[in-house]
Amino acid sequence: MNYAWGQFPTLQKIRVHYSDGRPTMRPPPEDCVQKFNPDGSYEYFQEAKPGDPYYQRVLRECGEYLAQQVQSLQPSLCVLDDIPEGYSVYGHRVKGVGKDERTDRYIFGHPTGGRYRSPNEFKVHVLWLASNEEHDYDDCPCKCCKAAMK
Ligand SMILES: [Zn+2]
């Protein structure tokens, strides 16, 4: 779809009013400090702030997914207002000996202590937060809820 200058559509923000997120399930502070080993290797967690491109990607992918369930919304124009309360986005920065640093990204906060490895995994749980009025975990098909039931 093309838009003339001055007619850019505004993003529609979606707010999820219920959350089961637990801040205590995030990495402990001692795991969030960059400590070098004698060989130069290190690993630590770093919280992503709302301005972080990955954080924004989580908001967009979740917003788009929620909007797909509602016919009156155009998914590509929808974004989550914020990560549901109690959840947080972290990068795990790892550098092995003689290797380049890499960052693996996770979303923490699920009551079981489980973590999501992508917005794609997390959005399933966000839809359940937004739509399951009974908050019945049996109804959530996300990987953390499924793992908890085994
Ligand atoms: Zn779930």
UniProtKB/TrEMBL annotation:
GO terms for biological process: silent mating-type cassette heterochromatin formation. Pfam families: Clr2_transil (PF16761). Coiled coil: none annotated. Residues 79-145 form the Cryptic loci regulator 2 N-terminal domain. One of its GO terms (cellular component) is mating-type region heterochromatin. This is Cryptic loci regulator 2 N-terminal domain-containing protein. It comes from Saitoella complicata (strain BCRC 22490 / CBS 7301 / JCM 7358 / NBRC 10748 / NRRL Y-17804).
